[in-house]
Amino acid sequence: MTNGYPENGRGSSNPRTLPQLSIATATGRGTAVTQQRENRRTRIIRSDPSLAGHFRGTPHTDIEGRSVVSGRIARRRILRVAGCGLVAGAGAAGALQWSAPGAQQSARRGRFTARPAKDAPAEAFVHIMAHADDSLYFMNPELEQCLRGGAPVVTVCMTGGESDGRNALSLSPGYAGLPERRPDFARARINGLREATAYMVTGDWLSPWHVEPLTLLPGFRVESQTLVAAPRVQLIFMELVEARALRTPRRDSLRGLWLGATRDLPTLMPTASPVGRVFRYTREQVIDSLAAVLERHRPTVVRTLDPNPTRLPRQPHYAGVPPVLQGIATYDHQDHTASAHFAQAALARYWGRGPARLTAVDSYLGYEVALLPDSLDAATTARKAAVLDVYGWVGGRNCGDPAGCGDRKVGARSKDSRWTSNLRHRAPGARSWVAPLPGGRLAAFAVLGGQAHCWTETGAGSGVWSGPVPLGGSLLEGQVEALRHADGTLGLFSVRTVLPAPGVPHRREVVTAAQTGTVSAGAPAFGPWLSLGAPEKDPSGSLEMGYPVAVTGRDGRVFVFVRNRSGGVSFRSTDGSGEWEAWRSLPPGPGRPVAVRDGLDAAVDDAGRVHVVAAGLRTVHHWRSAEPGGPPRPAGPTLLPAATGPLSLVAVPGGGMRLALREPVTSRVIVADLRPGGAGWRVTAQCAPIGGYGRVALAREGTLTVLAARDDAGLVRLSAGSGRPGPWLGGGVPHRGTAALTRDSRGRVVAVVLGMDGRLGSARVRGTGGGAVADWVTHDGGVLDDPLMS
Known about the structure:
By secondary structure, the chain is an alpha+beta fold. The chain folds into 3 domains: 2-71 and 114-358 and 371-416, no CATH class; 427-541, Lipocalin (Beta Barrel); 548-686, Neuraminidase, CATH 2.120.10. The protein contains 10 helices and 39 strands. The strands form 9 sheets. An 8-stranded mixed beta sheet has the order 1-4-5-6-3-2-9-10, with helices on both faces. Strands 15, 16, 17, 18 and 19 form a 5-stranded antiparallel beta sheet that branches. The longest helix has 21 residues, at 182-202.
């Protein structure tokens, strides 16, 4: 049935019928709401680097006036392109807005025109989450960028998120006396999500939705909502009962169902639900329902919450908990983790049922980000907060539904939360996933559909790729690292998840595959994937292991480094005969043990010494081997500032090292050098802010330094300079993961990205500084249009 609000702004008198959703509220309260929206128009964000420290706690303080939910934020993306400069001269204003590539503002009252669905969409997105606000907190700005990009976007909310049924902050006066109305609160959260989604797509939070029951499995119905202005945008609500507690084990919860503590889990029917009755799902039926969504929409990208959150340093004790519900307490919400596990199982089932569209999977950290440095700049944080204000019913605007128009437990708090000022993927992005082949062609590797895949250039320097060709692997996750050995062959490294089954514990392990030769057209062929295990023997500890980074020493020994459960760095290495030695840990050095974030990097200097770097909460940690082929040891304090997370490290001719990182709060790219002769680390360049987040690719070829970084619109931006980085080049293309930088057969630095459609784009850098040029070409050699100029 069609869901809309009547023009008088009141809900339907039939409690089984959703109120009408019409934006033509020309009388009564509707006029007042419309006028209020226009009176509170959000003003232009001024991004000032000098306010960076202030933004740590209050990321909204650079907005003139309130960033209210109904204001129309200008969508034109204004860029000030300035170069990377020496530290003394750094400082420039960044982008004023982030938006999807190609997003444009309608001239009429600042509204957006919803981009029509693509005729034959090359990309499609499915988001699987536990609660109605999860994607708004933990997947934005990537969520809005895909919503504005014209591709089909489906969001599945697994629980009703009913909590205690009180739609108010727990510290509000009189909170304890409020009635517990869980069906109403579940409906209010649904309303908040669809209003925030409509706001992101069209600019109008009251843009109407078509609501109907949907059958994913025989005998079961879920609530489906489709945005009328953009039918490619759909919300699906399964409405399973939530845990109603952050960590306290409960039998009737997603976690209880996943662990087998309960045979089935009921739904909680929101007020005026179209599904008609309560359903009870078994574990297999939940997995089958999610797999049905995947089969129905055939996504190229699936986004989930974090399946492997970090455990609490002190484990709480819960008396009387049955053994099946006992387990590790983490920083994240138990519903978040369980929803990610169900998503993994559904993906495995979907991939196992036969040929499927190649699918990339991205997982996002949840509550844990509150403990980490801000990874987003002020402008991006402000936009996220504005969207969350819509969800949180800030201003008490009237949507016509007596159940509520949003989630007041969120309210206006988002601007003060590090959940809002962060976006972090569980997989930090491979820093080396493109490698040269004998003969000068390039090979690229990525995880799609749970397997490693390989693309090969059809000719050296052509920029035209064949593939992708599957290389095996089972439930590989996140990323794959490619390492070139001294003999020119390649080795691949990734992480595999083993889902729980009778007699099989839930665990993760590092895996590797070695090149065995070539196949037709000279593409590399690989042997079977072999397990290298994990630093922790305890299966539950292996779930917290990071992603591998590998290097080859001058003597041919291979080192593989990962973040371990305790926050240190562990490694395995080969001996003189090529056999793998046991896991060992890098010593922490004097003082307190280090606690590093994932996204570490390693490189070998001109003398053959292995260097490892990793970001802690306050500084960057550095290990270095004393002699070629030896294990790295603490190299002393770097005295470098904190980084948002993933690092990139390359050797500099003469025995030095160069490091690229992002500065917290501003997201500015910073370059630091380790001078030969023990002079220590020194920050040598700060690049003009372009927003963005995540790992910055770094390459050094002779005197040329090249950077590739994500900007505030989700585009990869390049910088090329002699000696130090040059200005950011204009243009850029959408991508997922981390860009790769490598050298082609002619000695040119090549940037390669993987698109949301599972196809590659590449650019060869010519020139330096203001005269640098990099033209992006498609998988098949065609010219990639510049989304900023379209």
